[in-house]
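Q: what does this look like with MD3 bound?
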Amino acid sequence: MSNGLKYLPSYFDRAAQETLVAVLGECLAKAPFYTPVMPRSGRPFTVRMSNLGQLGWVSDRAGYRYQARHPETGEPWPAIPAVVMEVWSKVSGYPHEPEACLVNHYREGAKMGLHRDEDEEDFSAPVVSISLGDTAIFRIGGTERSGKTETLKLASGDVLVMGGASRLRYHGIDRVLTGTSTLLREGGRINLTLRRVKRP
Ligand code: MD3
Ligand code: FE
């Protein structure tokens, strides 16, 4: 793996992960997880989602897009907490703030198919991901869906930065390894992805 992919294993120690979970809990009380559905078919995702920041990524029968409000509560997304913003400023190498932090929740059996993150205007900014809870099997390919892929385990506290030539690579989550972390009281995995959406 190369070209703008930066893997930072154990970026957060256990105490820092616990702080993140506490801070996220407050955010999620205001912006609860909901179950997105696929465009056109309306088939539900197995991953539940929420967002933080000025813009949140949503999917419904009408399509994928970024919007300022929670699709079920109608409320603006909570602000991205300072501890999360700090990660972006330290690792992104990008001189503007992210507007979006997608929060993905994987319970037992949840997965995410191979896709590209291409709903943003600014691909010069990386995507920064923070993993919490159970370990996931992450799959990454090239810029064509048919290309070969490889896997990487993402464990609690790991940070992944996907920039440069890696920004538009196909990727997904094959599965989550139940019971591999004690961080989340109810088990499962939470992933945060920070993104710059608009051109600065
Ligand atoms: C590689 N989430 O929300 S994060 C997503 O663990 C998403 O929930 C996964 O893919 C998750 O879109 C993977 C790691 C990640 C994020 C963005 C990327 C990998 C990436 C962008 C380009 C290439
Ligand atoms: Fe993605």
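The mean pLDDT is 97. The chain has one domain: 5-195.
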